[in-house]
Input
Amino acid sequence: MRVRPLDLAAHGDLRFDARKAGALRRIVPLGMAEIVYAAADMPICLAKDEQTGKFDLVGLMGLVEPVSLFAFPEGFQATYMPRAARLSGFRLDGQSVSGLAIDRDDPAFGESGEALFEGQRPAPWLSNIALELKNLIADIERALSKAATDDGRP
Output
């Protein structure tokens, strides 16, 4: 994994192809708002976090790492792509351009898709990515807190 702050000099020629996102993910965390959508395509499971011992709500996208059963040469093939899969190449980084860092090894970054930069400036669509990541983190936390406090009653 080569996570680096988003930078014109290092990433000026890169493009982001959302259809290729999540190709190396076997499991992805799910937010509360997307459970019903993800369940249409993939098993929803609980996975134990090795470090905390808590269980995370995840979508199972593959059985053998690093291969997603939904990744094909022409792109992601499912009716719904979990947000964590689509955003898997991005990280929050408050010190960098647009508040983002990217994992250069993620297959979504390459020569096809949307340009990360327009001239000397970050592409306008990148401003939404940091917000999407923050919303996803909050939604995942809602799912985890709901699972931790739910006693099974309606």
In short: The two ends are 42 Å apart (CA to CA). The CA atoms of residues 47 and 56 lie 5 Å apart.
